[in-house]
Amino acid sequence: MSSVKLLCLFDVDGTLTKPRNVIQTELFDFLQNQVKPLCTLGLVGGSDLKKIDEQMNGDVLNNFDYVYPENGLIQFKNGKEIGRQSIQKFLGEDVLQTLINYVLKYLSNITLPVKRGTFVEFRAGMLNISPIGRSCSQEERDAFEKYDKEHNVRKSMIEDLKRQFPDIGMTYSIGGQISFDAFPNGWDKTYCLKHLENEGFDEIHFFGDKTDKGGNDYEIFNDSRVIGHRVVGPHDTKKQLEQMFNL
User: Each residue of 187-203: pLDDT tens digit?
Assistant: First the structure.
């Protein structure tokens, strides 16, 4: 495979780390010391740069050649920002506020085992909406994930938003344990691929865990421009890389 110019592009949560956790030293060292000499490394995640940087042990822009926070709405190459887009530019403030107000009203009318704070997080390319609130503890995260699997809190809310706002051109995607993303159509993780088309790669291999329909890796995993690898956690990512590169 050495004569082929490869990019290995990774989702973060559930792929390189446990959700919202820091990457294990063993996997980080494996990527940097064994995988990086064989291919180019890239990241694409729904979170902002600060969160991704924390999860990658800091200095993420120097350890990964391409970094695409917020689904690639902000783009970094070789440590430098090369572009960005924003949801407020796309939607306009009036529509944006109407959507946020509706979300907060909806959440005020549902009862969960616990509720905490930061129910809507504004990001460059999306709204991240969390029924329990992003300031919950890890234990509360785990409990909500189980509760949501049984009661479909996020799925039901998404169906309601689709009914209420059929014409604003938004996609809703469940990712991680406690939230879902709302972003303009086409602003899923495939958005980053337009910035890679002229980079001269023979193959782009994408690794992600939320690859089923409705998951936030689904679109890029199934995109014809990439070779998709479905993983079930960081240990599986390492195992698939070992097999791919005969390590």
Answer: 999 999 999 999 999 99
User: In a 3-state reduction of DSSP, which class is residue 7?
Assistant: strand
Q: Where in the chain is the domain with CATH 3.40.50.1000?
A: 6-85+188-245
Catalytic residue among 11, 48, 148, 217: 11
Q: Supply the mean pLDDT for the chain.
A: 95
At the second CATH level, the architecture of 6-85+188-245 is 3-Layer(aba) Sandwich (3.40)
Nearest to 157 by CA among 183, 185, 181, 126: 181
29 is in an annotated binding site: no
Residue 200 φ then ψ, to 5°: 80, 20
The CATH architecture assigned to 87-184 reads: 2-Layer Sandwich (3.30)
Cα atoms in the Cβ-side hemisphere of radius 13 Å centred on 22: 10
20 labelled as ligand-binding?
yes
Angle between helices 153-164 and 138-151 (to 10 degrees): 70
Domain boundaries for CATH 3.30.1240.20 within the chain: 87-184
Residue of 13, 48, 188, 217 marked active site: 13
Active site residue 13: yes
> Is 188 assigned a catalytic role?
no
Annotated ligand binding at 217? The verdict is no
230 is in an annotated binding site: no
Of residues 207 and 188, more confidently modeled: 207
What global pTM score does this model have? 0.77
What does 66-123 look like in DSSP terms, one character per residue?
EEE-GGGTEEEETTEEEEE--HHHHH-HHHHHHHHHHHHHHHHT---S---S--EEE-
